[in-house]
Amino acid sequence: MSQAEKVNKARKKDERKKAWQTLLWVLREVHTLKRSYTPLVLIHTLLNLATIYVPILLIAPVLEGFISKNWQKAWTWGLTLVGLSIALNLLKDFLSRYLKIQGSDLHEAFSAKIHEKPMTLDYPSSQDNDAKNAFQRAFQSMNYEGYFNEFIGQLFTLLGDLLSLITSVSLSAVLLLSSPKTEGWLSVIAQPWLATTVTVGLVVFLSLLTKKSNDQLAIQRKRYHDEHITVETDLNYIVMQVLLSHGNYALYQVYNMIPMIAAWYKEKSKALTDFLLKANIIIKREILNKDVSGFVFTLMAWFVAGVKVMTNAVPLAMVVTYANSLIQVSKSWLSFSENLATITRRVPYYQDIQNYMAKENALETGTIPVEKRRDHEVLLTMENVSFKYPGSDKWALRNVNVTLDMKKRHALVGLNGAGKTTFVLLLCRLYDPTEGRILLNGVDIRKYNYQEYLRLFSAVFQDFQLFAFPVAENVACDVDYDEARVRACLEMAGFSERLAELEEEGKGLETEVASFLGGVMHFSGGEQQKMAIARALYNQGSVMILDEPTAALDPISEADIYAHLNEIIEEKTTVFISHRMSSCRFCSDIIVFNEGEIVERGEHNSLLAQGGLYAEMWAAQAKYYLEQGHVSLVEN
Fold it and tell me: What is the pLDDT of residues 497-514, one digit of tens each?
């Protein structure tokens, strides 16, 4: 055996091992989500077998009764056959309808589990491009070939096919091995060795022919699916991020983008339609393969059974039983082969889902509980912290050594890309440092319980998000909320007047902030930021993070909010990030970043006196504010 053959053999062995692991994973997931589903599918499989073989077995005594003119026997077995067939089919149909409902619930439950997975990942894992692509593949695989109820049904259909094959082969063996009692050319055909050889040979030939065709179709299907993932991802983007992005319609019209967007949509829609047509052709060819094979073998089965009867090898009354037994051999084998091929084809899609669901968080959680202090006294320290974003060779922060004093106002300033937001992300442990460590009250933050550590912070990030939920739920981040506390936080954030207007309109805190179709309704950019600030206040974290929280406000409104915030968060350590230097005057500690390093630190007046980067930035903005008449913003 050549080295290439050994490698190929090892690869196939590894693929089979992974396939079995995936099958076991699917069964475990189904058992976890709906314990009763698998046993019920097994019962349904056995009922289906009963509906096939009860008539096959009971038709013989019925025919025997009619042939011998034993009417009592014929009617007794005939009524038994009809009664059992009706009862079994009714029970099977009832269970089929019940399983259809349960299967739909099962699919929805697992679909929800897939959609919840990204939200359970920590921040670095959720932002990783590989993770995003893995989610897209898992989501598309779920929609394309990932219906758990269908997959479980196929697994047990495979079991049913195997049981049916054993039963039908046992019955057919009696027919095929029976010897003819007459002479002539028919008796030659009826010889056990010839009848058996022809029957087995035809089954093998049809199976191989069908398998070869279906394997080729499976390769095409997989290739079309991979193309489909890209097409549907692009189409979803165009629909959700472009067509339903109503806030961008002015941009589309001003720049005459509508023809371009229409061309995009037309191109991707045509690609999706082409995929559906190709997929439909594959399905039709699979059905045709099955039907042609079944028809050929049915003719052969009745021919063999007829020859056996005509040569007195078997009684006339058994012709229907034996013929249908032979037909079931073909049906069971072809169905077994088809379902095995389908399961084999589907396994890679479930492996996409399994691999994504098995994705672990990049950040490890410690075990030390975070002390919940009513006095909000926390001391945060960075020791020799440096950081590179995943996939980047550039240092976003370099050799940062800083202590944030308890209950002080800290302002982070610097040019765009200086490292201010990165500093905050590390402080909140949304990323871990590439080098160095961060301490909370003298203990490495990686030793604390991750979720408890996150609860220390109340943050308003630069790219904050409001959702298509009521105002109160956007503030509380929960369906169960303290109404008085929500109102108090909105008032502290300067939202009182707008809330009063909402009350007059009739819905108040229950006013929907946004539409599920996209776009924030009713509220200006400044009002949205005030709600985001109220959300941070409601969270009651010991450390407030305000990353450009007032970017949508004019300088006067911003100064008013900062003055107000200075009063309401006096018991908390606070970190401000703002490009407007006027906000820094409310802070006792100003940290100046440049190219990922801390280059200056102090309070407002001392930094101005140094004449460094802070003084340059202040002077540049002061000139603008004076020209606009905002003298109060630059007075020391």
Answer: 899 988 888 888 988 887
